[in-house]
Design goal:
about 90 residues; alpha+beta; Nonspecific Lipid-transfer Protein, Chain A; 4-stranded mixed β-sheet; 4 helices
Length: about 90
């Protein structure tokens, strides 16, 4: 699921431009599997799969694997189309 995230984001010039002021590392968790995603000036520089002992991150996004699979679809269904929709559904 996340293996292609770095290439997809970095290939989108508009997305990289919008994120050019973002430098952070965050934890993304799908069920029991977690990844650390590092971003430098809008480009994803690494996606590292856990497990981690004490990961250092600015924030964490956690949902079930099924919820993330729907979120990453080319045309996600209502309720899975953005992070706030997932929060409203308490996913």
């Amino acid at each position: 699921m996340l293996e292609a995230l770095q290439a997809r984001v970095n290939a989108d010039a508009g997305l990289v431009r919008r994120g050019r002021y973002l430098t952070t590392t965050f934890l993304l968790q799908a069920g029991d599997i977690s990844w650390l995603v590092s971003i430098f000036e809008g480009r994803i520089v690494s996606v590292t799969r856990g497990p981690f002992v004490m990961p250092s991150s600015s924030f964490a996004l956690r949902a079930s694997e099924a919820d993330w699979q729907q979120f990453f679809l080319a045309k996600p269904p209502p309720g899975s189309n953005d992070l706030m929709a997932l929060v409203r559904r308490k996913a």
